[in-house]
C-alpha cells in the first residue's frame, strides 16, 4: 500500500476521490502539471528499480519525476488504492520510419469504468487528458488530434496528430502486466547508448497553456503555440529546476556536483 494522502499532496490535488471518469481526468491533469518527465538518475548512475516503495520515495518523498515505468508504475498504484480498476500495459513506441519498438518499450495504462480509458502520465509531450480506448474516431485535445486504432493482427495503436508519421504514438496490447515484466527494458533504457534516455538529460512538464522543458541546459517554453528557447548558465539551470520543476536543493546540488557543463549540451535539440 502507498500513502495516498502524501501522494495527493505531492500532486496538489484536493478534488473528489470517487473512482469515476471525472476523478481520473482531474488526477491525470494534476499529475502531468506537477510531476516532471525526467531521466536525471540515468545520468547520475543511480539504478532505477521498479519497486513501488522505491518509486514512492523518489517521486513523492524526494519530489522528483521519472520516465514511463516510474511515473505510470506509481500512478497506477495510486489509482488502485482509490478504487479504480487499472491495468498496466506493454507498448512499443513508434519510430520515425513508422516501425515500432519492442514489447515493454513503454508502459501505458488502461482504466476500466463504464467506458475503458487510456491513461498515460509518462509519455512526455502526449495527451493531457485520458483518451477513450474504444472511440475509433478522432479525439482532440489542446488543438492536437489523437486516434486509437484497433487491428486484430497488429494490436491497438495510438497515433498523435491525426495519424501522421514521424514517431508520434505507440502500439500496445491489453494483456495485464506486472512491474517485474518491464525490468529488462528498463535496464536497457538506463544503459544502452542507443536508448534516447542515455543520449541527453531531459526534464519536462505540462503547463496550463503549453509545456516547459529542459533539454540538457536548453530551456524551451511553449505557450499557446508560441515557442521560446535559450541556453542557461549552470546557476540558471539549478534555479529553473527549483522554481519551475519543484526539485529540492539537495537533489540539485547532487546533480551539480557531477560537474555537468554546457560542453555537451550547447548543440543539443529537443
Q: What report would you give on this structure?
A:
With 270 residues, the protein is of the alpha+beta class. It contains 9 helices and 13 strands. It is globular, with a radius of gyration of 18 Å. It has an 8-stranded antiparallel β-sheet with strand order 5-4-3-2-9-8-7-6. A 5-stranded antiparallel β-sheet has the order 1-10-11-12-13. The N and C termini lie far apart (37 Å). 30% of the residues lie in helices and 26% in strands. Helix 4 packs across helix 5 and helix 8 runs antiparallel to helix 9.
Task: Give a short overview.
The protein is an alpha+beta fold and 270 residues long.
SSE layout and pairings?
Layout: H1 4-10, H2 21-34, E1 37-38, H3 40-44, H4 52-61, H5 68-81, E2 85-93, E3 106-112, E4 116-119, E5 131-132, E6 138-141, E7 144-151, E8 155-160, E9 169-172, H6 183-191, H7 196-199, E10 202-207, E11 210-215, E12 218-223, E13 226-231, H8 234-243, H9 249-256
Antiparallel strand pairs: 1-10, 2-3, 2-9, 3-4, 4-5, 6-7, 7-8, 8-9, 10-11, 11-12, 12-13
Helix pairs in contact: 4-5, 8-9
Features:
270 residues, alpha+beta, five-stranded antiparallel β-sheet
Q: Largest sheet, described in full? A: 8 strands, antiparallel
Q: In angstroms, what separates the terminal alpha carbons?
A: 37 Å
Structural class: alpha+beta
Helix content: 25-40%
Strands of the widest sheet, in order across it, are 5-4-3-2-9-8-7-6
Number of helices: 9
As a percent range, the share of strand residues is: 25-35%
Q: Strand tally, please?
A: 13
